[in-house]
C-alpha cells in the first residue's frame, strides 16, 4: 500500500513530494443496475473505519504443495511476483480471493494491518505501482478487525472505497487493465454481492508494466512498518497477467516472497498461489 516504495527505494524517496492529483472517473453496477455516481465513495486511505468480523472457511493446509519457485525475503511483501520483459508488457492483471480475517499479533504495535492486493510493477520497476485490494486492520488493543477495499497508483496516495464494505469470506475479483503506461481501469468486483466498481484513471505515474504481483503486504504506517496481524490463509485464484503477446503470465517461475517469521507464500499451480501467516 501507500508506503511500499519507501522500503524498496530506501530513505531517499520522499513520497509526499511525488504525490499529484490523479485524474480518475468511477462507475459501478449493483446486480447489473448502474449505481448513481454519488453513491460510490472514496476517501484517502487511513487506518480506521469500516467493520465486520464474520467467520470464514478454512483452506486445508495440505493444499500448500509445491515449492519449485525461487524464494526471496522482504520486509513487507509476502506473495508471488512474476516478470515479463518490457518488449512484451503486461496489459492486465487478475485475481480472485476471499477476504481474510485477521487477529492481533502479540508484541506488535498498533495499528496492525495485512493488505491483500494484486498489481503491476513496484518490484523491479520501483517508481510506480498500480494496485488494488483489501485490507484487514486492527487499530488498537480492542482487537476489533476492520476490512476495507482500496486502490492506489503509487507514488500517489491510496483510496479506500468506502461505499463497498467488506466482510470476511467475501469473494472479491480484481482486474486491472492498462490502456497505456499511464492509464488504466481498475475493476473491483464484489462477487458475493454482485456489485462492481470501475475506476478509470487517465493520468497515472509511468509504469513499465513488467512486474506482476499477488501479495499480502505488511503496510507502512507513517515511516515505520505497521504491526502485522495474523491473517487467514489467503489464496490468489485465477491469478494471471495478460501480456501484449503470447501466453499469460502466471505463478510458475514467479519469485515467492516471504517476510521472515511472519508470512510465507508458495505456488500451487500456474494460476493459484497462497500466502499464509507464520507460525502456522
Ligand atoms: C479501538 O478500535 C476500535 C475499532 O477500530 C474503535 O471502535 C474504538 O473506538 C477504538 N478505541 C480506542 C480507545 O481508540
Ligand atoms: C459486498 O457488498 C455488500 C453490500 O454492500 C457488503 O455487505 C459486502 O461486505 C461486500 N463485500 C465485498 C467483498 O465487497
Ligand atoms: C479488461 O480486459 C478484459 C480483456 O480484454 C475485458 O474482458 C474486461 O472487460 C476489461 N475490464 C475492464 C474493467 O476494462
Ligand atoms: C517458509 O519459507 C521458507 C523460505 O521459502 C521455507 O524455508 C520455510 O520452510 C517456510 N516455512 C513454513 C513454515 O512454511
TrEMBL record:
InterPro entries: ConA-like_dom_sf, Peptidase_G1, Peptidase_G1_sf. Residues 51-71 are annotated as: Disordered. Keywords: Signal. Residues 1-21 form the signal peptide. GO terms for biological process: proteolysis. It holds the Pfam family Peptidase_A4. The active site is at 217 (proton acceptor). This is Concanavalin A-like lectin/glucanase domain-containing protein. GO terms for molecular function: glutamic-type endopeptidase activity. The keyword Signal applies. It comes from the Eukaryota.
